[in-house]
Amino acid sequence: MSDTPPNDPLHGMTLEKILLALVERFGWPELGRRIAIRCFNQDPSIKSSLVFLRRTPWARAQVEALFIEMKNRPSSPPGKDGRPRLFSPKQG
């Protein structure tokens, strides 16, 4: 066995850690907009979301994909209107 870490970006991450990171980064309203599932939009909680995601493979796959995207894309500061920027500001 080698001491190099695996290439899996989800290695060592539990579903709860993933969900907490997404909620911290986006908040429930934005998370519900990005992944349209009821447990994110109506009375959201970590506990109810974990129950749903553990029983629903397609929803879990979407949450994991959003987490990987979040990790791969550095966050840029919000624009003048306070909304998150989708693209980096122009250089020069």
UniProtKB/TrEMBL annotation:
It comes from Aquitalea palustris. One of its GO terms (molecular function) is DNA binding. Pfam families: VF530 (PF09905). This is DUF2132 domain-containing protein. Residues 70-92 are annotated as: Disordered. It comes from the Bacteria. The lineage of its organism: Bacteria, Pseudomonadati, Pseudomonadota, Betaproteobacteria, Neisseriales.
